[in-house]
Design brief:
The protein has 22 helices and 28 strands. It is of the alpha/beta class. It has three domains: about 160 residues, Enolpyruvate transferase domain (UDP-n-acetylglucosamine1-carboxyvinyl-transferase, Chain, Alpha-beta prism); about 190 residues, UDP-n-acetylglucosamine1-carboxyvinyl-transferase, Chain; about 220 residues, P-loop containing nucleotide triphosphate hydrolases (Rossmann fold, 3-Layer(aba) Sandwich), CATH 3.40.50. A hairpin with an 8-residue loop joins β6 and β7. About 0% of the residues have low confidence. The structure holds shikimate-3-phosphate (S3P). The site of shikimate-3-phosphate has 12 residues, from α1 and α6. Shikimate-3-phosphate (S3P) binds next to α1 and α6.
């Protein structure tokens, strides 16, 4: 899957790029309501932002040049804490006046955390109503009149840190900030990418501290050109759904900022297997692709302390998963959740309890005991997008019958969330709680129609089609790329250590090898010529066997090849052996290639197939043969539909039909 642009990075792009000294073009911004709020308030402040909805998200084009210092506008930041808090820092730094306000949820959230340090820098900010709450008024101020600040934040908050840094950079005064644990560092990275001298620790080895010192800096922020990577927090919810439905997922180009990926470690603790492959940074932000495989059953987890800022937005999801994990999960040190879009600890505790889950609520966390059996009941989201999504995941993939009062609020961060969940809705490929792994083996000689038949059968049954030939082709492709395509000794030596596996893609499985998805290159003429020889190498067959069996444990599969029923899955639930007279196979192959059906062509092709059959039947390792309990179907006089129908019927007899 590919996710909409990261919300945090999108906010910063919309809020900071218009303040640069030169033009910016940023693509792939989140289309969520929160980011739109950021774009809108900057436009109201006179920033030049041209915003277009394009494929892959919003594209913004900013001429740069800053804000208009007109009469103070009243700005509605809607539901977005990031908008209001970062904006407070921007207005303090630029000296531009405005009144900031938001919806009922935002009005209930604490603002002192940013107001206080900004006032300490000399910004003039007043509460229009209740102290510590919106609306707040920020008064105009001459540029260059802020004071330097050294701030020890009591809580780890990227929004607080960003407000102070933005005020410092835009007001050109030194700021130094430390936080009790490291929060996400998108602001530092973006300002550094734009040329501001930021001192921070992007590898997060030490304690949380960051410094901006304008000494020696000419004060120019350069325009930005970047594409915002996918949102890891949005990804987390879909990955959670995949874990509950027992499916693997491949996530393309996602933001991998170390302050955002803590939930991957929690999923690993729950038993998932996670593979992360780096992509080049963009705009100072690390990006990765992820492959996540589910465990046979989720295990409980325990998180707390310095880990919390790195999973802060994913805790509602983790709590939902905990309800379906074996054992007791612990969340500690997460009092910040009480001042998010809702009091998330209270809402999670109340809702899970209503659904019949054993849960204990503490001031700073939750203890959740997972349970089996159906969960059912109402969900009051309080208009909180992460709560709506967490229970949306349970409902779709966690065997829960829920009445969620407001699903639409997911659009705050993830428009299209409901549609994105569709593939994980109790998919027949694997039901919640099932061990997964049901295998239909389809073997047969060359050109017996195995592969296309297997694919159609998989479609009909909601299984996943696995073509063993793809793995042999991938190893052949790798050998050719490595320049050892004809060196069998070298292939034999390299195969066992090869990083190769079947990975999910849009409509089935493809092969990833050494971090690459060769895709169509697997069917190049070079690969086709060499694949037979490479697949005869015993070490190669061992690797392929292992990966096929792994797929058989993970999914319900229809697997085709030449030794699937005999060697790879001797205990397959159904084994089919397709045969057809050589002449008929020759005819089908010629048709497939679009060649002319002359007697001469048919004869030549028949001869080629017969000699391939002899080779396949007589080779030492895994020769082509029908297994004792395989059902032979002679397709000579049958069309494809009839063959598929026959296999689906056999599957139904064995209880393998879709329910
Ligand atoms: C965010 C920081 C976090 C997070 C929010 C986005 C940001 O808030 O919860 O969704 O983009 O800086 P805090 O910094 O207040 O923890």
């Amino acid at each position: 899957m590919r996710l909409p642009g990261d919300k945090s990075i999108s906010h910063r792009a919309a809020l900071v790029a218009p303040l640069a000294g030169s033009a910016s073009v940023i693509r792939g911004l989140s289309t969520g309501a929160d980011v739109r709020a950021s774009v809108r308030v900057m436009q109201r402040l006179g920033a030049s932002i041209d915003c277009a909805e394009e494929e892959g998200g919003l594209t913004i084009r900013c001429a740069g040049g800053g804000l208009d210092a007109g009469p103070p506008p009243a700005l509605d930041c809607r539901n977005s804490g990031t908008t209001v808090r970062l904006l407070a820092g921007i207005l303090a730094g630029t000296g531009v006046a405005a009144v900031l306000d938001g919806d009922a949820s935002l009005r209930s959230r604490p603002m002192r955390r940013v107001v206080y340090p900004l006032q300490a820098m000399g910004a003039r900010i007043e509460y229009e109503g209740e102290p510590n709450r919106l609306p707040i008024r920020i008064r105009a101020r001459a540029t260059g009149s802020l004071r330097t600040l050294r701030h020890r934040a009591r809580i780890a908050s990227a929004q607080v840190k960003s407000a102070v840094l933005l005020a410092g950079v835009l007001g050109r005064v030194r700021v130094e900030l430390s936080e009790p644990a490291l929060s996400r560092d998108h602001t530092e990275r973006m300002l550094a990418a734009m040329g501001a001298p930021m001192v921070f620790d992007p590898v997060r080895s030490g304690a949380g501290s960051v410094r901006f010192d304008p000494a020696g800096w000419d004060g120019t922020l350069h325009g930005l050109r970047m594409t915002v990577p996918g949102d890891p927090s949005s990804a987390a919810f879909l990955i959670g759904a995949a874990m509950l439905s027992g499916r693997s997922v491949y996530v393309e180009e996602v933001a991998a900022n170390p302050g955002r990926t803590g939930f991957l470690s929690v999923l690993e603790e729950m038993g998932a297997s996670v593979r992360r492959e780096p992509l080049p940074d963009e705009g100072g932000e690390p990006r990765e692709t992820w492959t996540v495989h589910p465990p046979d059953g989720l295990r409980a987890f325990s998180i707390g302390g310095a880990e919390i800022p790195g999973v802060i937005d994913e805790i509602p999801l983790l709590a939902a998963l905990a309800a379906r994990a074996a054992g007791r999960s612990e969340i500690r040190g997460a009092a910040e959740l009480r001042v998010k879009e809702s009091d998330r600890l209270a809402v999670l505790a109340r809702t899970l309890e209503t659904l019949g889950v054993e849960i204990e609520e503490r001031e700073d966390g939750l203890t959740i005991t997972g349970r089996t059996g159906q969960l059912s009941g109402p969900v009051e989201t309080r208009g909180d997008h992460r709560i709506a999504m967490a229970f949306g995941v349970l409902e779709a993939a966690g065997d829960a019958d829920l009445r969620i009062d407001d699903r639409a609020c997911a659009a705050v961060s993830f428009p299209g969330f409901q549609e994105a969940l569709a593939p994980f809705r109790r998919h027949p490929a694997r039901r919640p709680g099932s061990r997964g792994g049901r295998v239909i083996a389809v073997d047969g000689p060359a050109a017996s129609g195995k592969s296309s038949t297997a694919r159609s059968v998989a479609d009909r049954l909601g299984f996943v089609h696995v073509n063993s030939g793809l793995l042999y082709r991938a190893i052949t492709w790798w050998a050719l790329e490595a320049g050892i395509g004809r060196d069998e000794k070298a292939i034999e030596g390299g195969a066992p250590a090869l990083d190769i596996d079947l990975v999910p893609e849009r409509d089935g499985l493809t092969v990833g090898v050494e971090g690459v998805l060769p895709g169509p290159a697997l069917h190049s003429p070079e690969v086709t010529t060499r694949v037979s020889a490479v697949s005869a190498i015993p070490a190669v067959r061992t690797v392929v066997l292992d990966r096929l069996r792994r797929a058989g444990r993970r999914y319900r599969i229809v697997c085709d090849g030449r030794d699937i029923g005999t060697t790879v899955f001797p205990d397959a639930e159904l084994k089919v052996f397709l045969v057809a007279e050589a002449r008929e196979r020759a005819r089908r192959r010629l048709l497939e290639r679009g060649a002319e059906l002359t007697t001469e062509n048919i004869e030549a092709e028949t001869e080629r197939l017969e000699s391939r059959d002899r080779l396949d039947r007589s080779r030492a390792v895994s020769p082509l043969q029908r297994d004792r309990d395989a059902i032979e179907i002679d397709t000579t006089a049958m069309d494809r539909e009839a063959v598929v129908e026959a296999i689906v019927h056999l599957a139904a007899e064995r209880g393998l039909a879709p329910r």
